[in-house]
Amino acid sequence: MSDDDQDALFPGFAAFRDDGSSRFYRSLLPAFGTPQKTSAEITVRLSRVLFDVAREAARRPSKMSLEDLLHWHAGIFKTTFPIEAGQLRTAQTQFGVRWREGGELQGRLVSGSDPGLIRAELRTTFAAYNAERERCAPGQRSARETAIAAASLYADILRTHPFDDGNLRGAFPALQGALVSLGGRTVDFLDALTEHDEALGWALRPDAENRTALPFAELLIARMQRSGNPATEE
To answer: Could you tell me if residue 232 is inside a domain?
Structure first.
C-alpha cells in the first residue's frame, strides 16, 4: 500500500459504531479515549488490513490459517485494545443472530464454541478453505463455487466466535482474501448491512439441520457483480 493509501477506508465501515455495551466500544488509552476516536482508529487499521489482504490475494491465491486470523485481529485492535488484540477468548460467550424465514424476522442467541475447542475448530475451518484453494486454479472455479467456499469460511469463523469482541471485523479479511484467492473479487456491504446480517444468520442459526451458507453466498455473488470496488486495484 502506498503512503497516499495509508488512511483510505474500505467501503462500509466508516459509519460503523460498536454498541455501548461492547468491550471495544471505547479505549482506555488516552489517545483514543472517546468512542468516536476509538472507532475511527479501528476503522483505519481494519481498512489497512483489508487492502493488504486483498492485494496479496490478487498477486497469488492465499493460503490462510489460524495464525493469520490472530495476526489480523491484532493488527486491527492493537493500538486501542492491546491486551485483547489477537487473543482468543477463554470464557463462554453468546451472540445474537437474525434471519428472515417465511417473511418473518427470526432472532436467537447462539453460543460460541467451547474455549477449549476454538483452536482445533478454526484449524479445521482453514484446512477446508485451503483444500478448496488447492483443488483448482481460480479461473476454473465458478462464481457460485467461489461464493459458497468464501461464505462457509466466513460463517465458520463467526460461528466459532473466537474473540471476546471484534469477531466480524477479525473475520472480514478472511472473507475478502478467500473471494479474491478463489477467483472472485472483494465485496462491501455499504448499502446492504441488513441483507448481510439476515443472509449470514442462515449460516449461524442454532438449529444445525436448517443451517445453510447459500443465502449469504447468493448475496456475495450479487455484491461481486457490482462495479467500481477498488480494493484490489493498484
So the answer is: no
The boundaries of the domain holding residue 40 are: 3-224
The answer to whether residue 230 is domain-embedded is no
Query: Cell 444445525 belongs to which residue?
Result: 208
Q: Is residue 234 situated within a structural domain? A: no
Query: Rounded distance, CA 205 to CA 212, Å?
Result: 9
Sign for the pseudo-dihedral over CA of 31, 32, 36, 39: positive
Owner of C-alpha cell 449469504: 216
Judge whether residue 231 has pLDDT over 70: no
pLDDT digit string, tens, across residues 76-94: 999 999 999 999 999 999 9
Decide if 179 contacts 224 (C-beta within 8 A): yes
Cβ count near 182 (within 10 Å): 26
Set of cell numbers at residue 95: 451472540
Number of domains the chain is built from: 1
In this structure, the number of other CB atoms found within 10 A of the CB of residue 21 comes to: 6
86 vs 100: CA distance, rounded Å: 33
Q: What is the CATH number of the domain that holds 159?
A: 1.10.3290.10
The residues, ordered by sequence, that sit 6+ positions from 188 with a Cβ below 8 Å of its Cβ are 10, 11, 12, 223, 229, 231
Query: Which pTM value belongs to this model?
Result: 0.93
- Single out the residue of 161, 180, 191 nearest to residue 230, CA to CA: 180
Q: Which of 17, 82, 10 is nearest to 47 (CA)?
A: 10
19 backbone dihedrals φ, ψ, rounded to 5° = -65, 150
Distance CA 31, CA 118 (A): 33
Residue 233 lies in a domain: no
CB 205 within 8 A of CB 101: no
Classify 206 as helix, strand or coil: coil
